[in-house]
Amino acid sequence: MLGKRLKNIRLETGYHTTNGFTDRTETITRDVWILAGKVQKLLDPADSLPGAEIIDGQGALLVPQLREMHCHFDKSKLGVPWYPIETAENITERFNKEFAYLEKLPQSFASRMKNLIDLELGHGVTSFRSHIDIHPKVGQRYLEQAQAVLADYQGKLDYELVAFPQHGLLLSKAYAEMKKALQNGATIVGGVDPLSLDQDLDRSLGQTFDLAVEFDAPIDIHIHERGDAARETFQKILALTQAAGWQNKVTVSHAYGLRDLDPGERAELFPQLAANGITIISSVPLDFHIPPLMELRDAGVNVFLGCDNIYDCWSPFGDGDIMTKLNRFAEIFQQTSQIDLTEALDLVTDTPVIDPEGWLKPEMPASFTLVDASSTAEFVARQKPVQASYLRGQRVL
Ligand SMILES: [Zn+2]
């Protein structure tokens, strides 16, 4: 058997312009030859390939693998009969109530997590980054339960697990459990609000970077700090990134405080974030906390999106569709042109789609998404349906 031939798919090769106005993209129709989970070659429809299994792509637009870059497998309430979020005065009260609530639920961890994964897979995502709570009260339990569920999804999704000290690295004395989690299969060091939660910027961030260096792991830290707390925190993160040589390995999730910087401060900080490969991940909040994501992109900072809370103890909302978040991003930041909407897809794929020969290249993993849309811009703006998703040559959706 000579692998698979996914026939009749379209790839965008450039922009079409009429009288100076970009009104659509140009596309080519190709077949994808898939062998051993990788792209062997893009074939012309007339090329012969005897013996390959034929799959009809029905003229779908081929876009890269969709990525969910910020979710919480362990916090899902999906499958739990409707229950609103409880009131909480602050984040500490919120996570204490959350822990008590989750521990008492009759629905199992596995079923709630599977409902979350299935919801997102149903929308075409095949790559997940999930934070998993690590603190002395829960120990390694949530991590182990998440790993057991992930074993059932082998071949259906890629994943990364972030050891996340939700209750405060210092506040909950989570350092030893964080070490264990990184020994036990978590591959990214998480963190949360070193100033407002841990009350000690230097020690909290210092320990976060110590863990990262010890385990040669990237960092993805939730920073909700605002104003001066954010200014201080970002400067410290920059300094530690440079001191540890951790360029291209540090992500800040949420980063609300970047909106509090004045234009001069932004002009100074954002290029430094870009130069040090510090990534920003946003859940595109609607409550006026959203950082200036387009200014960051324009300064060369990598920005990605995540659904984050989807019916959990933090939010009753969320449809689990990363394309809803991207659509919201485009609307908030008025990315309305054919080109802007096309480039926006990078926020959930990390792979530009416009390429004169087609973005999909030989030797790439055969992980991609088939969409019923004339162009990427239409997919993003109109939230056109995902028809199929493939992970390393196997159909998932
Ligand atoms: Zn989160």
TrEMBL record:
Residue ranges annotated as transmembrane are none
In what residue span(s) does the Amidohydrolase domain sit? Answer: 175-396
- Signal sequence range: none
Q: Which InterPro entries match?
A: Amidohydro_3 (IPR013108), Metal-dep_hydrolase_composite (IPR011059), Metal_Hydrolase (IPR032466), Metallo-hydrolase_Enzymes (IPR052349)
Q: Which SUPFAM superfamilies match?
A: Composite domain of metallo-dependent hydrolases (SSF51338), Metallo-dependent hydrolases (SSF51556)
Q: Which GO terms describe its molecular function?
A: hydrolase activity, acting on carbon-nitrogen (but not peptide) bonds, in cyclic amidines
CDD domains attached to this UniProt entry:
Bact_CD
PANTHER family registered for this protein in UniProt = BLL3847 PROTEIN, CYTOSINE DEAMINASE
Q: What is this protein called?
A: Deaminase
